[in-house]
Specification:
Layout (H helix, E strand, L loop, with lengths): L1 H25 L3 E8 L2 H17 L3 E8 L4 H11 L5 E4 L4 H5 L21 H7 L1 E2 L2 E2 L2 E2 L1 E4 L2 E4 H6 L10 H14 L4 E3 L3 H17 L14 H16 L6 H4 L10 H4 L3 E4 L17 E4 L14 E3 L2 E4 L6 H13 L1 H7 L5 E2 L2 H9 L5 H13 L10 H15 L5 H18 L1
Parallel strand pairs: 1-2, 1-3, 9-10
Antiparallel strand pairs: 3-13, 4-5, 6-13, 7-12, 7-14, 8-10, 8-11
Length: 424
């Protein structure tokens, strides 16, 4: 009898300890790292969402790692290669191919628990987020490009804005603006973006193609590149762009240029993921139009792509908890209201609806995205290796600083691109 009672007591104790162990597992403290880049508005909103999530899940601590874009790609590449990447990371869609060359560095988000992706446009995910049948990241927003002009500046100079510019027409109006006031330039832009998005878009106008063919050869001619480089040269020489030596301190952060704050630029080639917070203060006089085009352009070259992607590192020890956070980040209404358009127009239907109802979306961004969705280019050049991008950026810098003739720079660039493609 005693033995039976003792056995029963032992079973009760073991059952209780087992149940307690299960409870402790559910409340184990988990620390995640989340890395992103951006400006102050993006940082503040993202930190707010992190705090929201942690208040609901007190056993989860999310360490924020954030800063500017300079050096971000190199840092992320090194961390992924070394297995030290943050659990959750933001990356540009154009980085994806280069990052995947390191290995299987991302969790396939189709296979994790706790993450609902049904509110995203399935075709948008197919186009920009799925590689080798794996969902490597979710789009933070829909990013689009435009020509954004402050009509108050052009009106004072007696410039009548067209419905759409040619490149020659833009240069002529830039000359008029600079003649009216020598402190003013038409477009606020930086060499980094000129050497990447600008070249991609203008080459697409000339060729109707991405810059690389399916067999990884250059899909443009030497004459095509010469025409684009000549356009960049003409933009600097005719006061479309501020001299490179003066604009250099504001590289990759052009909204910090004092001339921008003083309305000494007529506008910029706007990218919706950047136009947030205090980026500009002239919404009432903003005019949005498509990119200028070459005569007989084969397409318009307007950017339409994810603002960024957010994924989970395959090295994460807490992928399911990270997925649960992403589920909150993308699918919770309070998170959507906090994030607004700090990563461009939201990519989920719920977030767009909630933010529009609360009047939280920049009207210029909404107009830009709607325009791009209607007429944006199909050639987004998201699979261009970073080595090629760097060659184009270097060439653009040489043009900007007058380090050689356009013909010389074109010939050197074509040679370097081909040599690099052969090596890759």
């Amino acid at each position: 009898m005693r033995k039976g009672i003792l056995c029963l007591l032992m079973l009760c104790i073991l059952f209780t300890l087992g149940a307690q162990g299960t409870k402790d597992q559910k409340t184990d403290q988990v620390t995640l790292r989340f890395m992103w880049w951006g400006g102050d508005a993006r940082h503040k909103a993202t930190l707010q969402v992190i705090d929201q999530y942690m208040s609901i899940h007190p056993n989860v601590k999310i360490e924020a790692e954030y800063g500017g874009y300079d050096g971000y790609f190199e840092k992320l590449t090194a961390q992924l290669a070394g297995g030290t990447a943050a659990d959750i990371m933001q990356f540009d869609a154009s980085m994806t191919v280069d990052l995947l060359r390191i290995g299987d560095v991302f969790v396939d988000l189709k296979k994790v628990k706790n993450l609902d992706v049904s509110d995203f446009d399935s075709q948008f995910l197919e186009n920009y987020s799925i590689y080798n049948n794996a969902l490597v990241g979710l789009p933070t927003g829909i990013n689009a490009g435009n020509l954004m002009i402050n009509s108050a500046v052009t009106d004072k100079a007696g410039i009548v804005l067209p419905q759409k510019y040619t490149w020659d027409g833009l240069i002529e109006d830039a000359k008029k603006l600079h003649a009216y006031d020598a402190n003013k330039y038409f477009i606020n832009y930086d060499i980094t973006t000129l050497g990447k998005e600008f070249i991609f878009s203008t080459l697409a106008q000339l060729t109707g193609k991405e810059i690389l063919s399916a067999d990884k050869k250059l899909a443009f001619s030497r004459d095509d590149l010469y025409k684009v480089f000549s356009l960049i040269d003409a933009m600097y020489k005719n006061h479309v762009l501020e001299p490179a030596a003066i604009s250099a301190p504001f590289e990759a952060k052009i909204n910090t240029n004092p001339k921008w704050a003083n309305h000494d630029f007529a506008g910029t080639f706007g990218v919706t993921s950047l136009i947030t917070g205090s980026y500009y203060d002239w919404k009432d006089t903003a005019v949005v139009m498509p990119w200028p085009e070459f005569p007989n352009a084969k397409e318009n070259g307007i950017m339409l792509r994810p603002a960024q992607l957010i994924g989970i590192a395959s090295s994460s020890k807490h992928a399911e908890v990270a997925a649960d956070f992403l589920n909150y980040f993308f699918n919770n209404k309070e998170a959507a209201l906090a994030l607004k358009d700090v990563r461009s127009i939201p990519a989920t239907n719920m977030a767009r609806d909630v933010c529009q109802q609360a009047n939280l979306l920049d009207p210029v961004n909404v107009k830009t995205v709607n325009m791009a969705l209607e007429i944006g280019t199909k050639n987004q050049n998201l699979s261009v290796p970073n080595e090629l991008v760097q060659i184009l950026k270097d060439a653009t810098g040489k043009i900007a600083y007058g380090q050689g003739t356009v013909a010389q720079i074109t010939d050197t660039t074509i040679r370097l691109l081909n040599e690099t493609l052969a090596r890759l």
